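User: Fold this, then the next.

Assistant: Folding the first:
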Amino acid sequence: MTSNINPNNIDGAYPVAGQDNNSQGFRTNFTNTSTNFQFAADEITDLQNNAVLKSALAGTTLDNNMQGSPLSNAVLSNMSEAVNVLGPVSGTVAINYALGSYQTLTTNGSVSLQFTNFPASGVSAAVTVQVVVSSTTHTLQFPSAVSINALGLQGFNASTGIMTFSSTGTFSFTFETSNGGSTITVEEDNKQIQPFNASGETLVDTGVANLAVTTSYFSTVAASTATLPAAVGGQVKVFVMLSYGGNMVITVANAGWKSSGTGTATFSARGQACTLRYIQSKWYCIGNNGVTFA
């Protein structure tokens, strides 16, 4: 803003020493001085109320609330975001955008997310939610406004809005809207730690196949058994017999080759292998090298 203070309307040469001076000159100087003081007070108060400050002014609390004002052509570095820690939660959990764009929670049961206080339509707003899943029995439900991106989310059931987890761990999701929350897109930020990666395990006799890894391989010294539990939609599981000392019979929950219930996959020679995929709540064989299914 342009200051209204006018330093030129004060006559610094008045009064003139050693002579009788007209009192009007005194009144003019006093009036102009008073007016400039008032301008100064008003402008300082305006700055105190509206300026962005590095620290609080004396006797005040710092609050650089921009109130939706535009900020453009800025170069940012060493910036950080406040974290809103929700702690262990279950049931309906409100993600209040006004409390921060990064929020964390730990499941203490199944959780249903709700979003509040997104900005009004016309601006983009995003909030990242870090979810520590403490049990695979816990689910995460998104509100109906949330739609998955074109790639989809592993474990997400679009018909129910519920996401299931094959392993415990930390998962992060970013939710974004440009219409005040009427529609919200979601992306998973750390897909690499999901249970759909290229890792493997050694499956032992009477073991339970680990859904947190893609491949389970085994070498038998005698007849052996193992189990494969139900998974989440889209998961792929590979089994490989490295060496043979007896049949390996894997009992498979929700077997797609059965009308209902469990089925078995029997490995009876070195090099036998199969690939299964969990589709519509059942395991289906999508690749087989010598394995017998029953």
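Now the next one, as you asked:
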Amino acid sequence: MQSLDILRGITVAGMILVNNGYGESFEMLQHSRWNGMTPCDLVFPFFLFIMGISCYLSLAKTQFTPTKAVVWKILKRAVLLFVIGLFINWFHMAMKGAPLDFGNLRVWAVMQRIALCYLAVSLFAIFANHRYTLPTVALLLAVYTLLIIYGNGYSEDPTQNIIARADRWLFGYGHLYHKSVVDPEGLLGTISSIAHVLLGFYCGKIIKGSRKPGQGSQQDIYAVCLNIFTLGTVCIVLGYLLTYGLPLNKRIWSPSYVLVTCGLCALLQALLIYKERQPHSTLHTPPFSLVFGVNPLALYVFSELLSIIFSTLGVNDAIYNGLHTVIPWAKWASLAYALTFVAINYAVGYVLYRKNIYIKL
């Protein structure tokens, strides 16, 4: 599915863009401080939803059979993802001159959440009956809702917020993210994130229900797109209804945030599938996003390490100051720097793409 690679590429490029603004960025390229949602808050949830689709399509090749080889591959991949995330955190610490300060090594981050969600959903895929996918989503979101309601999950006081308290009790303050009330990739938020990936998994089931690309009738394609579009619309409506009691909040990965972002990603995926299956579709030409889409995790990890190196060596200062002399407006200069950083990563990805090198775990 090239449409899935393109959507994944758009998302990864977006993740790199919003993570690498310099100085004063536009508000739409900054995460919400607490309640609410900006376009910046869409990129990571989109990636998790896409991962759910990929889990279904990938494990379908094994008929979802829990053989030793399949289970071992799932466990190995999850561990590698988690370790890579820890390495990024350690590398940041090491570049600051404290490579042995393990008492302040952050446990959580994007890769670690990806690892736990991938593990949970993949094990569900091979051991559970898939007709329980949506009931499992509902159960996980219901349990998490009770946790944040009765545990003051929306409180901005970390001594009262159950999400912050759980992470501090289990891992200690030194191992957590310190620029937010809660660690945005902390342990309890993984509950709703697993539900998030399961919704993507269900979308993958809808897609796999169609015939193989090029073999299905146009009516089949319309039916698949309509079903995904329906899923997305229902999620968005339910999500916004929930905001009356449970505001959108990326930091705690609120149930309303899960539903709205999954819904938006589903709508975009339906649109891209529809476009891909049209005769003479331009989607079959290698677009910018496909370069990021075929090596998503490799380029994301590379971008994180490169960002740390640039920051430590002052390369980001030099590039930004050079751009700022040409672009006098700080926010536009910040955007120009972020786009320049994306372009550098694109150049690396393009070389891999042209050489047919696909880095996978």
